[in-house]
# Entry
Amino acid sequence: MEKYFDATYIWESIPTLIPYLKVTFIVAGLSVLFGSLLGLILAVMKLGKNKISQNIAHGYTTVLRCTPSIVLLFLIYYGVPAIAINFGINLNDMSAAFFVVITFTLQFGALMSEVIRSAYESIDKGQYEAAVSVGLSNTQAYWRIIFPQAFVVALPNFGNSLLELMKEGALAYTIGLIDVMGKANLIIAGNYNSHALEIYIGLSIIYWILSILIEQFFLKLEKIFSKGKKNLKTV
Amino acid sequence: MSNGLDFEFLIDTFFIALSGVPVAMIITVISLLIALPLGFLLALTRINKMPILSQFSRVYVSFVRGTPVIVQIFIIYNSVPLLLATIFEKYNIQMNVYDVNPIWYALIVFSLNTTATLIEVFRSAINTVSKGQLEAAYSVGLTTVQAFIRIIIPQTLVVGLPNICNATVNLIKATSLGYAMSLPEITLKAQVAANASYNYIEAYMDIFIIYLIICSLVEYGFKRMEKRLRKYKIAPAA
# Structure
């Protein structure tokens, strides 16, 4: 039998895998977009005065936090078409990406609702009062004083959630999405399941570099945006 | 596809899936038992900036946190048998590599993974305990080991407990990926049951409910523990 481990497969696999990052990015990007919106709505519900909507939002976050992505993914993949068919909509031919985006939107929304809520709560109430006292309107106070500060607080957590999303997104291959992970599995299947290890190592290198880049990007952003932040030094 | 849920199947599969809980729990507990001390020690190497170990744990944490768990699973699942095969060949051990129980692979993957998470948890928790605590412990005559066991570790645990809880919940959730190693835990058992009749929705609802119950219990347990450990917490200096 030939060699068990052949490092050349690692270097050969990386260029073939990289074009498929596009799919990963599109799916992650859409999930981040919709998920952030959902997170915002949930955060508003949590911060609001209404007890019922508060409980709904908190319950949603708890349930989603306790569900493994893979279970949620399959639940959506099989469940949504089954529900839709009762309304006369046939979703069975939808692309896998559609279900992946729904799943990760739901999950990212839960994560973001906590990020937004804690960022908002970290801003001292005095900031709002001070803004109103110098004559800003309610909207102006939020847009010019509260949101910019909350944004800086939320940034690192947003970055972490994004990384989390990207890593969990690797599971999308289980319902047939051809992203980097899906492509890696196709390559392995094409090799009759030999040299799987080398391909997975190549894949992990791609993910690793990508995470480091995202992490560094958010560190830079944080530095840029925290320029106006003074309270840490003065206290 | 039929309309409505098959309730009989739903209930039957619930118990089939439930029979996978012990395996998931064994993996969780053993991984934690390995990862807690290891994570604590490696966190110390990073804080004290020990030459080689500190760089090692930095790269290690960065890799584990930067790659999906499923990829880590596949790497271990594909590499360990190769290593074992070479070792067996060298020492003429008559044993088939493919007879190894997948639970061993799962233990390796999840201990390694949790260790990385816990290194970060402990690193930030140890940093919150002020240096004066260790100095005070020395000054009353405690040895380093005593100081750590009686003074530093209890305080670290109080601070780190919420994050350890998160790590535990994530670990339990991650065991659902054990199906990729054909590990007979909750997810795989329900999946197999569903394969026969294509009742996937019911099967995944069962899994969903089981994880929900387990994670809620774990979170409740940690909340209780947090309350009990709170007596070690130092009140902020007035």
Q: What stands out?
A: Chain B has a mean pLDDT of 86. The CA atoms of residues 78 and 139 of chain B lie 52 Å apart.
